[in-house]
Amino acid sequence: LQLVESGGGKVQPGGSLRLSCAASEFFLNYRAIGWFRQAPGKEREGVSCISSTLGLSNYADSVKGRFTISRDNAKNTLYLQMNNLKPEDTGVYYCAASSNYYCSADFGGMNYWGKGTLVTVFP
């Protein structure tokens, strides 16, 4: 299973970006998938996760109300719509897939990772 992120870039505070993650295999449909990020000098953290079915999702407190996760199982693609971006949202954003149907509350259980896409929010 390969995961390839795209959509990163540079944006001013208050701007928006939409990240995409394309999976190489259809069985992504049966996995919970999510987004993580790593800011310079900080540990990687969970941003959002969505279950394989029912569209159950969770978000880090820092992005609630600003970011929206979605998936298109027919296209084997995961998305992250990021609105009202802040400088603290800067970092490399990774897509990850779990072996489970449902997301873990602590964003754990991810087995497959993409290489990341850089998001830079600057004034």
Strand content: over 45%
Q: How many helix segments?
A: 0
Radius of gyration: 13 Å
**Which regions contain 5 or more consecutive residues with pLDDT less than 50?**
none
Portion in helices: under 10%
Count all strands and give the number: 11
Termini Cα gap: 37 Å
Tertiary shape: globular
Give an account of the 3D structure.
This protein has 123 residues and is mostly beta strands. Helices cover 0% and strands 47% of the residues. The protein has no helices and eleven strands. Strands 2, 4, 5, 6, 9, 10 and 11 form a seven-stranded mixed β-sheet that branches. It has a four-stranded antiparallel β-sheet with strand order 1-3-8-7, with no helix packed on it. Strand 5 (45-50) and strand 6 (57-59) form a beta hairpin. The termini are far apart. The mean pLDDT is 94.
Features:
123 residues, four-stranded antiparallel β-sheet
Topology at a glance:
Blueprint (H helix, E strand, L loop, with lengths): L2 E4 L2 E3 L5 E7 L9 E6 L6 E6 L6 E3 L7 E6 L4 E6 L8 E8 L11 E4 L3 E5 L2
Parallel strand pairs: 2-11
Antiparallel strand pairs: 1-3, 3-8, 4-5, 4-9, 5-6, 7-8, 9-10, 9-11
In short:
This protein is an all-beta fold. 0% of the residues lie in helices and 47% in strands. It is globular.
